[in-house]
Design a protein that fits this description.
heterotrimer, A mainly beta, B mainly alpha, C alpha/beta, B: mainly alpha, 2 domains, 23 helices, about 55% helix, C: alpha/beta, Alkaline Phosphatase, subunit A, eight-stranded mixed beta sheet, two-stranded antiparallel ribbon
Chain lengths: ~120, ~450, ~450
């Protein structure tokens, strides 16, 4: 397969304050996906601005959804092809988040994880 | 059989070659300082272990620090930064040697955390005893994942690690072991396990007696209820090992095989020293062939880190990730368990990638033709060439110098009697000359 | 500089390991990564260089000057020589949509949300049950003109459903996870020469594994326009003179230090290659190849039009390989991606064929289009399809003899236990037949167990 140049990057900047000069560096989390599991680079991250990267180590397409337990909003990293990465930048409130792949039956087959935001 | 030692003059030229082979090239003036210590002093300094001091500004990419555990490519940048800023270049270079020798790819491991953990183990233990290192490698989480160690248990041994332990890590292909030895060693190596924590990955790597096959095995025609430590010990004590180890280590520093006497002396030294990597390394680094023999092509990571080290530049862009892929060496992703294939370090395709690396390095140092003041850059072709060469602090041959001079003479010749060109061509010529020096055969090799 | 921040893992994987002379990674069935298969069994780690344009497999050449080879390659060329082009459709394309069996009674049941209607696409002239996917109209037209052979159910026995493993089988031309050379590579080892890297051209950023040889060099080239050397803040005369200066850095090619000499030679070869390819690049840096047909504005179109130009200029290419457009691993919502990918594929292929015909060189070029497998007959619940077995392949050219090879087996008796299409033709038979009929080479020298493979009359 060719070197693909496109990245699936979803930016959700709406909540970033205008004066961000003194803002702390964002928290980062890497999610490795394959058939059929998700693995997080850390079990918990700090609240506030976060960048979440999905690396598709599998053979099939995967995506990533994130939702705070009890929350209504779903954050998404769009479909990422095998060997590609995609990321999402957003603000996260403290709580427990569920992460999963929304494609086909991937969630049921094991592509799910939980993350604590402190 | 005494080991030959280099007895010629040890000046800046020799110190510079040593710093390239045993590190990532000199910082400005470093080769002179090292030359002042003499050969023994220089090698002794390089072999000193202990905490590293990273010199210079830490990385900043898109205004932020690196996230080596949490962002693709930042593992590569993290290590590249260490190569650029290290005060223990040989420790760092040996880490690269072990990464190639015990090649493990995050392609399979899928965890930058585990890869960096392995990398730090190489950095910490790389100059100690070789068997000690092999024991650490054998129980290393990234290696257990890479060569199926976790899938190997009593009754169902997986031969992958056992085979590579002998074939690629300690003995060499077909060197005095049989397929039966592979199978028996695989049984001896059973028992490692870990827990897959859903949503987090592999944790709690450990040896579990219940998964280990503790029955008798026959390895190299000797029977015993061997476990994983004995398995490693048996391979180290195998008669083929000392030859394999010394040849392979030699090959990382000197491109032609050692003569028979040197080879025999290195093997004797290795065994007498209790399998000390450091002592064999010291002998290799003092050997005349390193200073009088052929040049070597710099691996892409060494070429890139070396340019940044020379210029005192920090890691400030993620471009190094894709440029390193193009050049054929993305750290933490060797192509397979036998490591990188250095035959490809320099061909027409990777040469282009190296050109592009130099382009990216030079971009921030380039003069802007419209904003360069008269007199800031010389107009004399010969002086322009001198400036470009001293920019890199490299020694170039007469024929390369001639090629550079011809270029400068032609561009400046085209600027005669044209005021605009007189102003713009010198900085452009200097920019191009720096790039040409970086691409020169002398800069690609050491 | 062209740029990218991402990588393709599979590219990395395959490129790094697929090297002529070093072989492909052995692949354990079901295990995608070549970990532990340790192909490169070096006894001694020589740090010397392989010489170069022979981007791959150069070491066989020792110290010979390859720039002479390049120059000769470009000058004398391969007039009249037969060429085979391999186009890979990555991901395992859904043959039951590309050639949909609307006349089969079970089709609509198995494909309740994906089924196409009889009117959607043109009839397939060789089997009344089948229709062409609407995006493949250009292929239907080629088929009608006798320029296309269709293999409606091609595969192999005991199909493997891993992308990597199945693709590897197709690439090496054998059901052998350990095979270390590609089938086109082995063909080149028989018909090729030691100083012509252009004979096996990978039109890709990487060497495609089908081309991996054991003996002779092959090359990779993304596009004639990709091979350029520029410098920051250098333009006008200094910029124009820069490229010649790079070549002159190769003056050390006769230095007594063989490694320095080889490094210099690499620089010179890089410059030689740039000059040869520079014939197709204008002062504006754009590629000028004067295509004789209208190609789609896609990467695939550019690569094919570049290939047609190289062939027309008599570059001595014998086999070329490239990856086609699209990504066919359509587990979910497959209609859109399939339509887009297949449409670009068909348009590009048709343009290539027309271009070759108008250039008057179509008689010596054959193009084989393949995918690692087809997809499951029963669709899944996500408007997609999962990995299957037999799929569809095409052979394009003015020399093809057949409209169809192998039957469409139908969706009742034609499915295996797993609900996948059974193969009615074996890709190894196709390879063996092409090796003999197109290249006049004994297939036993290229395809393992070729004597057990039935032959099909494909060309001539």
């Amino acid at each position: 397969m060719r070197l693909r140049l496109a990245t699936a990057t979803v930016l959700a900047f709406a909540l970033v304050p205008a004066a961000s000069a003194a803002a702390p560096a964002p928290a980062r989390l890497q999610v490795s996906g394959d058939e059929f599991s998700l693995a997080l680079s850390r079990a918990s991250i700090r609240k506030g601005l976060a960048i979440i990267e999905l690396v598709n180590y599998g053979e099939d397409d995967h995506d990533l959804a994130l939702r705070r337990v009890g929350g209504a909003r779903t954050y998404r990293v769009g479909v990422v092809e095998p060997g590609q990465t995609g990321s999402l930048e957003t603000r996260l409130r403290p709580g427990r988040f569920t992460l999963w792949c929304t494609l086909a039956d991937h969630r049921a087959r094991g592509m799910r994880a939980t993350l604590t935001v402190r | 059989m005494p080991l030959p030692v280099y007895t010629g003059s040890f000046g800046s030229v020799q110190a510079e070659r040593l710093l390239w082979r045993a590190g990532f090239g000199p910082r400005p003036g470093e080769e002179r300082a090292l030359a002042g210590k003499g050969l023994d002093g220089a090698v002794g300094q390089l072999l000193t272990t202990g905490p590293d001091r990273l010199v210079g500004r830490p990385p900043k990419v898109n205004g932020r620090r690196l996230y080596p555990l949490d962002k693709f490519g930042h593992d590569h940048l993290w290590w590249l930064d260490r190569m650029v800023r290290t005060s223990r270049p040989l420790t760092e270079r040996m880490t690269l040697v072990w990464h190639d020798w015990f090649a493990t790819s995050n392609e399979t491991v899928g965890s930058q955390r585990l890869m960096i953990r392995q990398n730090n183990m190489f950095r910490r233990s790389g100059l100690g005893s070789f068997p000690g290192l092999v024991l650490r490698v054998t129980s290393n989480p990234a290696m257990l994942l890479y060569l199926n160690g976790l899938e190997s248990e009593k009754g169902a041994p997986n031969e992958n690690y056992a085979r590579e332990l002998m074939e690629l890590f300690t003995l060499g292909h077909g060197a005095g072991y049989t397929e039966r030895d592979v199978r028996e060693q695989a049984r001896a190596l059973t028992g490692f396990t870990a827990h897959y924590k859903n949503g987090y990955g592999w944790v709690k790597f450990r040896f579990d007696r219940n998964r280990h096959d503790d029955a008798m095995k026959v390895v190299f025609a000797k029977a015993g209820p061997y476990g994983w430590k004995q398995s490693v010990k048996l391979t180290i004590e195998h008669p083929a090992h000392k030859t394999f180890f010394t040849r392979k280590l030699w090959g990382y520093f000197i491109p032609e095989p050692a003569d028979d006497e040197t080879q025999a002396a290195l093997e004797a030294l290795y065994v007498q020293s209790g399998y000390s990597t450091k002592q064999v390394l010291a002998a290799i680094l003092k050997h005349p062939q390193l200073y009088e023999g052929l040049r070597m092509v710099k691996p892409p990571a060494v070429y890139l880190a070396g340019m940044l080290r020379t210029l005192g530049d920090r890691i400030s862009t993620e471009d190094w990730v894709w440029l390193s892929i193009q050049a054929g060496q993305l750290l933490f992703y060797p192509p397979n368990v036998s490591g990188w294939n250095e035959d490809r370090w320099l061909d027409t395709s990777t040469f282009q990638a190296r050109w592009n690396m130099a382009y990216r390095v030079l971009k921030k140092h380039a003069y802007h033709p419209d904003h360069t003041k008269r007199g800031e850059v010389p107009t004399d072709p010969s002086k322009l060439v001198d400036r470009a060469i001293s920019f890199w602090g490299v020694q170039v041959s007469d024929s390369t110098r001639r090629a550079l001079l011809t270029y400068a003479q032609k561009t400046m010749g085209a600027a005669v009697a044209d005021d605009d060109r007189q102003r713009k061509f010198p900085p452009m010529t200097l920019n191009a000359l720096r790039h040409l020096v970086a691409a020169s055969p002398e800069m690609q090799t050491s | 500089m062209n740029c990218c921040n991402e990588f393709s893992r599979s590219t990395l994987l395959r490129r790094a390991v697929a090297e002529a002379g070093n072989g492909l990674p052995a692949i354990e069935p079901g295990m995608p990564a070549p970990a532990g298969t340790g192909l490169d069994r070096r006894q001694f780690l020589s740090r010397t260089l392989g010489t170069a344009l022979t981007v791959y497999g150069a070491s066989a050449l020792g110290l010979r000057l390859l720039d002479d080879g390049i120059a000769r390659a470009a000058a004398t060329g391969g007039k009249g020589r037969r060429v085979l082009v391999s186009v890979f459709a990555p991901g395992g394309w859904d043959s039951l949509s590309l050639l949909y069996p609307t006349g089969d009674p079970r089709y609509r049941k198995l494909r309740d949300s994906l089924a196409l209607k009889p009117d959607d696409g043109p009839r397939f002239r060789s089997d009344a049950r089948l229709h062409w996917h609407p995006s493949l109209k250009p292929l239907a037209a080629l088929h009608a003109r006798g320029r296309l052979t269709v293999f409606p159910a091609i595969g192999y026995s005991h199909p493997d459903q891993s992308h990597f493993t199945s693709r590897h089988f197709w690439e090496v031309g054998a059901l052998d996870p350990q095979a270390g050379t590609g089938w086109l590579g082995r063909l080149l080892d028989v018909i090729g020469t030691e100083d012509n890297a252009m004979q096996g051209l990978s039109l890709d950023g990487a060497l495609l594994p089908s081309l991996a040889t054991a003996r002779v060099p092959v090359a990779t080239l993304a596009s004639p326009g990709d091979y350029r050397f520029g410098s920051h803040n250098v333009w006008d005369v200094p910029g124009e003179l820069l490229n010649n200066a790079i070549g002159s850095l190769g003056a050390l090619a006769s230095d007594p230090d063989p490694i320095l000499a080889q490094a210099a030679r690499t620089v010179r070869q890089a410059d030689g290659l740039r000059q040869q390819l520079g014939r197709f690049v204008g002062k504006d840096g754009q590629v000028h190849i004067n295509p004789k047909a209208k190609y789609p504005e896609t990467d695939f179109g550019r690569r094919l039009s570049g290939l047609a130009a190289l062939l027309d200029a008599n570059f001595p290419i014998r086999t070329a390989a490239l990856t086609g457009p699209g990504s066919y691993d359509t587990h979910a919502d497959q209609q859109g991606p399939l339509q887009d990918g297949a449409g670009q594929m068909a348009e590009g292929l048709a343009a290539f064929q027309h271009d070759l015909e108008r250039r008057g060189i179509a008689g010596r070029v054959l193009t084989l289009v393949w995918s690692e497998f087809g997809r499951r007959a029963q669709q899944n619940d996500s408007n997609g399809t999962d990995h299957g077995a037999a799929g569809v392949a095409f052979l394009m050219g003015t020399g093809v003899r057949q409209h169809m090879v192998g039957e469409f087996p139908g969706l009742t008796k034609g499915l295996d236990r797993d609900g996948n299409l059974r193969a009615t033709s074996d890709f190894r038979s196709v390879y063996a037949s092409l090796v003999e009929q197109w290249f006049g080479v004994d297939a036993d020298r290229v395809i393992p167990d070729a004597r057990k493979m039935p032959r099909m009359r494909l060309v001539g």
